[in-house]
Amino acid sequence: MNDMARLEVFDPPMCCSTGVCGPSVDPKLARFAADLDWLRRRGVAVDRFTLSQRPDAFARNAAVMQIVSDGALPALAVDGRVVHTGSYPTRAQLGRLAGVPLEDGAGAPVTAGKLEECRAALSDGKLLFIAVAGSAGDTALAVRGALEFQGSADLPPSAVVEFGPEDADGRALLRELGAPPPPGGSVVLFLAPPGGIIARFTGSPTKRDLVKALVAASSCSPRSGCCG
Questions:
Q1: Domains along the chain?
Q2: Which among 35, 96, 129, 190 is most buried, taking Cβ atoms within 10 Å?
Q3: What's the rounded Cα separation, in Å, for the pair 154 and 186?
Q4: Tally of CA atoms within 13 A in the half-sphere of 12 that contains its CB
Q5: Residue 33's closest CA among 11, 57, 60?
Q6: How confident is the model at residue 224 (pLDDT cuts 50, 70, 90)?
């Protein structure tokens, strides 16, 4: 249980505070409301604000106001820092954002469908950061720059998926993408839809490193000769 995390959800205008109302309920909103209740039961403080009902909450956060201007709601902030925009995350994603592990029926932690999250992010047109830790790696450090990138309203929507050193799926994914698994530290892959690799980093790339890689990839063209 995480007693310290505070999650704020900033919703676009809806008919009620959760969107779970009226004759036709969006199943994604119903699922998300249930997932927020799941977080609350595990000690996470959750506040939810709808633009049409609580504009004051939006006005207090400059980053959120920029997201409103960009038309990228919903947005989620953990302890005041925007960590997710543009969609309602899955329970697995919420758990990682708030530091709460998923559990099976017996209360034991389970591995989330991280490969499915990777595919879903790319299918949604998002940039994707995949962090895979080697035997001595730490993905929490490796993804700091990616999380800063994700929380920047002036950058494209993105997702961050972490694989720990014990997670064989992460190493298998690297092999599938033609990127050797890290022997000891961590590797961060930066992908663009539908799955092309923009850049590969060892260690902990900064937000600036990631932006430079994105700019370089965006300016690349067959005519320039920089594309493989």
A1: 6-98 (3.40.30.10), 114-219 (3.40.30.10)
A2: 129
A3: 27
A4: 13
A5: 11
A6: very low
Q: pTM of the prediction?
A: 0.53
Residue 164 DSSP class: -
Question: Which residues contact residue 97 at a Cβ distance below 8 angstroms, ignoring those fewer than 6 apart?
Answer: 7, 76, 78, 83, 84, 89
CA distances from 25 to 19, 30, 32 (A): 7, 7, 12
Measured in whole angstroms, how far is the alpha carbon of residue 114 from the centre of its chain?
11
Question: If phi over 0 gives left and psi between -120 and 50 gives alpha, with beta otherwise, what is residue 143?
Answer: alpha
> What is the token pair recorded at 23?
């004759």
Per the CB < 8 A criterion, the answer to whether 129 and 98 are in contact is no
Would you state the torsion angle of the CA atoms of residues 175, 178, 184, 185, taken in this order, to the nearest 10 degrees?
-120
The first and second tokens of residue 180, run together, are 């050797």
The DSSP output letter for 75 is E
**CA–CA distance, 228 with 226 (Å, rounded to integer):** 7
Task: Tell me the per-residue pLDDT of 147-189, one tens digit each, with 9 for 90 and over.
Answer: 889 888 889 999 888 888 777 778 888 887 887 777 777 889 9
Give the H or E element holding residue 203: none
Q: Which amino acid is at 167?
A: D
Separation CA 185–CA 139 (nearest Å): 9
Instruction: Give yes or no for a contact between 93 and 102, defined as CB atoms under 8 angstroms apart.
Output: no
Report pLDDT digits (tens) over 187-211: 899 999 888 899 999 888 999 999 9
